[in-house]
Amino acid sequence: MASISFRNVTKRFGDVTAVDDVSFDIRDNAFFCLFGPPLSGKSTILKLILGLEKPDAGEILIDGRPVTGIGPAQRNVAMVFQNLALFPHMSALDNIRFPLVERRVAPDKIAARVAEVCEKLHIGHILHKPPAQLSGGERQRVAIARALVRDPVAYLMDDPISALDARLREQTRVELRRIQQEMGKTLVYVTHDQEEAMSVADGMAVFQAGRICQTGTPEDIYRHPNSTYVAGMLGAPAMNVVPMALAASLQVQGPQGADSLGVRPENLRVAPGEGARITEVEPLGGFTTISVDLAGQSLRATLRGQPRFTTGQPVALSVDAGRAHFFDTSGAALAAH
Ligand SMILES: Nc1ncnc2c1ncn2[C@@H]1O[C@H](COP(=O)(O)OP(=O)(O)OP(=O)(O)O)[C@@H](O)[C@H]1O
What we know:
By secondary structure, this protein is of the alpha+beta class. The chain has two domains: 4-233, P-loop containing nucleotide triphosphate hydrolases (Rossmann fold, 3-Layer(aba) Sandwich); 240-334, CATH 2.40.50.140. Helix content is 26%, strand content 33%. Adenosine-5'-triphosphate binds at residues 13, 16, 18, 36, 38-44, 192.
């Protein structure tokens, strides 16, 4: 069990500032996502937690204690390496036992610990198989089991399911969420997939170029993004952001200083009328995505079911009450009107 905190941590590699004055708190037992585009510093944060890299400035605390000067082995934080890190010539069982055998733990203690972890991960039936005979998801669970047998205070995963296809990714993230809840351990999870971050995390930090833009629960960040950057990172299709000059056409009034208006596609109302024109209708089963031209700006709306709109049809647009976002010229969010 462990909380993890960063206090003004900076890490440079030559001219590159990979992590730039970053502060955050991960509470004990959280499923915490580090979310951002490639090269934004997420993996470096994991290495700093593990003790594989040292900060140039700032402090890292695990369970409230500074870990400066404490090596990776003493931190007792486990990295869950992916498939390739499993020993191919060993059975799943021997792979999982390995960290304890290496530490010369007594055989009866090893057996008890392995049994406990394997039961929680539901992998008792595949322990005799070598990694090559396991599915991607099973290999992943074996890798998690191997990280967890030595009872780390927290475990870390670096974009663990990005290589899986869409359907398997969906199943696997549900599974990871279940495992994390059952194991009751802090999990720090790197991803650049917004859907993944939204669906699994109970806390997240959104990164841009080594800096944290916003931290909070996924729902909070989705509902109250503090900038156009964060607004654009979460949600698909992305939030529509248009100049304030178009606000009147959307039947919205903005606060003082507003430069642009943001509307999530699910909060954009489309009705027969005047002012805008439909350019594309994309039925996707349970919902339909509609692209609309408003004075040369393309906006997207997601509507439930399969509403009867056709390409070229003139429509009137409006925004659900209280669901408009406003941003200033720098892209920072303003309080709603
Ligand atoms: N050991 C290193 N030596 C030099 N530069 C590094 C090193 N590790 C990371 N960097 C640089 O630090 C920056 C942040 O890299 P990092 O791997 O932390 O980003 P990331 O968000 O995890 O990216 P990705 O999603 O692609 O893995 C990048 O510009 C990278 O090139």
